[in-house]
Amino acid sequence: MKRHSPASERNRDPILAQLRRWLADAKQVIEIASGTGQHAAWFARHLPHLSWQPTDTDAGALDSVAAWAAEAACPNLLPPIGLDVTRHPWPVTGADAVFCANMIHIAPWDAAIGLVEGAAALLPAGGLLILYGPFTIDGRHTAPSNQTFDLDLKARNPAWGVRDLEAVGQLAQTHGMDHLETVPMPANNLLVAWRKRP
C-alpha cells in the first residue's frame, strides 16, 4: 500500500526550509493531493508545532498516506481524508495554510480554480496558500525539460499541462489573496505563496 516517489525525497528538504519560515506561527495545515504521503510524514515530523491534515481524491493514495503516517508515528499527523477540491465546501474546518505540491498541472484547470476557491473560503485573514511545482512565466517555460514535460502531460490528457504563474496569481488575486513570495526550487520547480487579505 505504501507508494514511493523519488521526487518527493529529492524536494522535501528545500520545501521544508521555506515552510519553516512561512509557517513558524501557524498551527494547522491542510495538504491537498498528498499523493504517496511522503511529504506529509516528513513535514509533520520536522514541523511538530503543526497539525498536518493530508488529503487526496484517490483511494490508493489515501492508503499510501496512511501507511507512511503509521510508520512516521507523529502525533501531529492526522489521518488522511478524501477531498475533491472542486466540491465545496471542503470536508475540513479551519487551517492557517493550504499546501499543494504537483497537482494543478496533472489535473484540469477546474482543479486549480477549485483549489484557490476552496483555500480562499477556508483560510482566515493572513492564511497562506502554498503551491509547489513547475510553472511557465509569461507563457514561457523555465527550462527545456519543463517544456518536454508539458508536452507529455498534454499528450496524456489535453486538459492537463504546466500552468502559467501569472494566471494562477490572477486567480488567487481575484479570490482575495496577494502574492507573498516565489522561491526557485531544484529541478526547475517553484514554491509560491499567497496570503489572504484581511
From TrEMBL:
**What Pfam families does the record point to?**
DUF938
Q: What InterPro entries does the record tag this protein with?
A: DUF938, SAM-dependent_MTases_sf
Q: Which Gene3D superfamilies does the record associate with it?
A: Vaccinia Virus protein VP39
Alphabetical keyword list: Methyltransferase, Transferase
Q: Mind listing the GO biological process terms from this record?
A: methylation
Instruction: Enumerate the GO terms in the molecular function aspect.
Output: methyltransferase activity
Q: Does the keyword Transferase feature in the UniProt annotation?
A: yes
Identify this protein by name.
SAM-dependent methyltransferase
Supply the source organism for this entry. Answer: Magnetospirillum moscoviense
- Organismal lineage: Bacteria, Pseudomonadati, Pseudomonadota, Alphaproteobacteria, Rhodospirillales
